Every structure is written in structure tokens, then in C-alpha cells.
Amino acid sequence: MDTLETFYKIxxxxxxxxxxxxxxxxxxxxxxxxxxxxxxxxxHDGNFEVLGICFNVDLKDLWVINTKKRLDNIYGILSKWKKxxxxxxxxxxxxxxxxxxxxxxxxSALPNPSKAFIDQLxxxxxxxxxxxxxxxxxxxxxxxxxxxxxxxMTDIPKIISSLKKFHLAHIYTLGASLHKNWEIVNPFWxxxxxxxxxxxxxxxxxESWRQNIDKNLHSSSNLTISPWIYDLTRSIKGTKVxxxxxxxxxxxxxxxxxxxxxxxxxxxPWKQIFSVYCHGLRDTKLRxxxxxxxxxVIFTKRELLRMKLIDNDECSMCHTxxxxxxxxxxxxxxxxNFWSDFCIYLTHILxxxxxxxxxxxxxxxSDVLINHLxxxxxxxxxxxxxxxxxxxxxxxKNTIRSIYDVEYHIARRKNDxxxxxxxxxxxxxxxx
Length: 432
What we know:
The protein is mainly alpha-helical and 432 residues long. It folds into four domains: 2-45, no CATH class; 62-154, no CATH class; 162-247, no CATH class; 255-431, no CATH class. It contains 22 helices and four strands. The strands form two sheets. The chain has a two-stranded parallel sheet with strand order 1-2.
């Protein structure tokens, strides 16, 4: 206490004894001995909290005591948001912003949670994303970057591993003093080194570095870390770099893409297709629709009949053919007339010949405006089929006007008309 008093006189930083708790640790844990009764310290025998992390004397069950209250809060937050009609992207945004942000601190400060906890958390989050129903798209696909056909859903084990990168700087500092008989016992540092090992094996490092870290993990060795890694751990976006490397950029195509290629008998520039709907569409409902469409979870009567949810698979528009995804959006004579009117309309108002291929109708085009209207038209067809209403292009013109009005008001609110004018400049005022 004399030392603290001297520190106060020099620095001006005084301990607030009214908020200070004292606890015995080590061999004296649970002792009833009390020092400095004149200071009226609050001697504590149970759990205590430091910087938002709850500890107990023997440092056991840290994840249980730190997550029970947080899990209750997670259930409460998701129960409120599940009542809203959100898209997949909207739900993932809720998960990242309101749920995972509350766990980042304990992911970074504590040893890794058990697999049971991670599985439980994943069940909670994906149950929210799919509204309590069975997953329609593999979780690994949702966790991919946009350019890989995903929605950037967070991969919890990999984000935990990436967060441990902050502590690599401490290992770098200690590395020179580590001797050959040093063994890793502390579970936190062991998890940190495992995270480092995973990153090294996912990146193009020298083989000697891999062997060095592997020896340290399994027995003992001198530990060295490149200064480049030390600088990376100090960078603001270091965690993002680690995470992206663990997620990977060169991944196999989703199975739905391979099915499209098998059915159509040709290959497609999938990265460009993914980029078109992820970055070219501002309407989240349209982005959600096109994402589901490409991943083949926009169901027609063919799929519903297989699920035994309906009695027949007769087309809702022509009532003469069996309904499947190609028939609904390409082959049905009602839809062909709709697309014909669509092209005639765009040719008239844009003053240039507009011809749209079947592949462009399915996967979009690089023209931002035309691509937006194609996806909006497909969603219009989808909604009309659900309602058993006519697919009429005159009715779709009202949708075009609504799209224009929404984007105009967004541009006016942001006071940024550059992108808006570039997209809609060729659209005559009479057609809006």
C-alpha cells in the first residue's frame, strides 16, 4: 500500500478504495486473513471481474461464467430481430453488428472456447439466419467472400484464431529469451501458437518457419517470428489479413454453379457474375433474390412437388407445361412475351437495340441499369407466380418507377447524384 501511495504522489493517479475488491489467489485462495482493515477493502471470495472478463480463483470454467449472461442477451436480441422480414444479408449484418461484436473481447482475451460452445453458438446464429428452418445453403458457402459466391458470414473458429494475432507481438518480444527446454503449458499461449501455425500453413511461408513452430507446439524449441509478422500484428487491419488468408481466396466453385454448367453445357465467369449482383445492386432484396437464384434455392413447383407440399407441378402461367426454373424464367410463352416487351421497352427509351440472351437473363449483365432491371423483372415474375397473378409488363413498369424513385431519394439524402446520374442519365423523364 505504501508503494501505491508513493505512486499516487508522483503520478497523481489515486486508487479508489470504495471500488476496489481484494481476493486471495494461489496457495492462500479462500483464506479469511484480512489486511489493512483501516482501508475498509471489500474482500471477495468468489468470482471477480477485470476489464469486462470474469475470473474465479482457480481459473476454471472461464467460458461458462463469461458466456452465460452473454448467451441470454444473444437470445433476447435475436428474438426481437427475427420478427422483422430481413434478407439473408440483413440477418448476417445483425449477427456481425449486434452479436459477434459483444464476443470479440472474450475471444481475444481468453483461451479458445470448447467445440461444444462454438457448435451451440453456430446453431443459434444459423437458426436465426434461416428463420428456424433447415439450412438451404451450405454454411461454408455463406462464409465465403462475395467474389467466391458467399455473403461474408463470420467463421467463428477462424475469427478466434485471427484475433489471437495480437498476442504474436508478445511472443516475438519473448522469442529471444526462450530456451530449448521451454514448454508451453498455459492454454492461452498454446491456442495463440496454434493460431499462428494455422496461419503459416495457409500462407506461403518458408518451410523452416513451419518446422520451427511445429516443433514448439509438439515438444520444445527456440521460437522465432519474422519482423514482417510483428509489423502485421501491429497494423490496424492485421486481423482482417489473417482472417482472409484463413478463409482462402482459391476455393472450388459451389455445387450450384457446377449444376448450372452441367445443365447449360458451358462454363461461366463466376467471379464476374458474383460481382455483378453483389456490387452492382443496391437493393438488398434484389441481391438476396439473385443470390438465392444462383444457389438454386428459388423453388418452383417442381421442387415443391418433390417436397410433397403441393399436388401438381403445372405451370402457374401457361397451365400447359411442367414448371421448373428454366420454364418459369425462360421457356414459358407468357414469360417470352414479357421479355420481348421488356427488350422493346428498353430499346425505345434508350435509343439503342437491346438484345438479352438467356444466360444474361439467368445471371445478369455488366450494364448496371439493365442488370438491375433484369433482376427486378425476375423477382417480379417470382412474386406474380406465388400470387397466381398475371405476369404483365405494364404492371412491371410501376416497379421500374418505384426503383427510380427509391434511388433518387437515396441520392438526394446523401447529396450524391454522381452515381445516380451515371446510371439513369439515358432514361428519359417520361419513362420514369
